Amino acid sequence: VQLVESGGGLVQPGGSLTLSCAASSFAFSSYYMSWVRQAPGKEPEWVSGININGDRTWYVDSVKGRFTISRDNAKNTLYLQMNSLRPEDTALYYCARISGPAITGWEAWRGQGTLVTVSS
């Protein structure tokens, strides 16, 4: 399993970012996928999940209405559109080959992460 996240960066509160995750070495279109984040000094937190076809999505309550997960199976790519960002969204964001929201064993199925920093 190879997953490479990109798109992180420094953004002001209220701003937007779109994260991407390029998948390879497995049949991406056959798996549910998720985004998981880990803030400094905190436990990892499942953020959002998406089914195989992309027509069902799930979110942790704290990002509902602000974040949108999507996928392009033709491009083997997972996305996370993040709007109205808050300082508490600051974290390392990982894509993972899990359905969520349980994240037991997720470390075996994740990329290297991309850092999102929300600060003025």
Structural overview:
Helices cover 0% and strands 45% of the residues. It has strands at residues 2-6, 9-11, 17-24, 33-38, 45-50, 57-59, 67-72, 77-82, 91-96, 114-118. The N and C termini lie far apart (36 Å). The model has no long low-confidence stretch (mean pLDDT 96).
Compressed to H and E, one letter per element, the order equals EEEEEEEEEE
The total count of helices amounts to 0
The biggest sheet amounts to: 6 strands, mixed
Q: How much is the radius of gyration in Å?
A: 13 Å
**Fraction of residues in β-strands:** over 45%
Summarize this structure as a short list of keywords or feature phrases.
4-stranded antiparallel beta sheet, 120 residues, 6-stranded mixed beta sheet, 10 strands, mainly beta, single chain
Task: Please specify the SSE layout and strand pairing.
Blueprint: E1 2-6, E2 9-11, E3 17-24, E4 33-38, E5 45-50, E6 57-59, E7 67-72, E8 77-82, E9 91-96, E10 114-118
Parallel strand pairs: 2-10
Antiparallel strand pairs: 1-3, 3-8, 4-5, 4-9, 5-6, 7-8, 9-10
Summarize the structure.
The protein has 120 residues and is mostly beta strands. 0% of the residues lie in helices and 45% in strands. The protein has strands at residues 2-6, 9-11, 17-24, 33-38, 45-50, 57-59, 67-72, 77-82, 91-96, 114-118.
